[in-house]
Here is the input.
Amino acid sequence: MRIVGIVAALSGMLSLLIVIPAAIFGAMGTWQVWTLAAAYFTFFLLNVLRRDTTHGKLAKRDDDEQVKSVFGRIGFATQIFGLLGVHWLALYDFSTDQFSSLRLATVPANIVAAIFLVASIALSEAATRQLGRFFDRLVIKDGHELITTGVYSQVRHPIYTSYMLLFAGFVIMLQSLVSIGLLAAVCAVWFGSRIQIEEAMLEKKFGGEYKSYREKTKRLLPFIY
Here is the structure.
């Protein structure tokens, strides 16, 4: 029954982000929309299903360090409403000529988008597998360990990187440059607040070990940032 609930929840999320706006704007018959819906479903199903079936439910929302911080709550609100805006705007742009002057070249955009979508799923799969039971809300768990191997030897927040690749693949496949700008702003606030809270939490827990790890790695992009 838990799996049924997970699938139902994911279907509801996909409806809000993709299916409903695509239906409203007349884009449901396009292969791009179905490809993106399939990629999103695969990304989130693999992500959530392993966590739930292998390690149980997430920590309580009240224990999440993000909701204890005003900055974190602002980031969370930006995530919810900002992502809705990004997805609806991209689908509107794709189905109309409203922002035609800001369109990307179709074939190169589709190739780049496909690469981003596949990379997002692969990276999320690797990172969540390596985190194991520590893939959770922003909490310190009993016996918490600092994971620094695999993809974590290159970047400190690969799961956030996988989300950005997924969303970037979405707006690129829909050829919406205007949505890329909005997505960049949403991610800056959302992940900026979350990373700041998470790194402060981990530094408090692991002290010098975490400081040393932070000095050797990038936040989100290997060799860049």
The mean pLDDT is 91. The CA atoms of residues 157 and 220 lie 6 Å apart. The helical segments are 2-24, 31-55, 70-95, 106-131, 158-173, 177-206, 208-216.
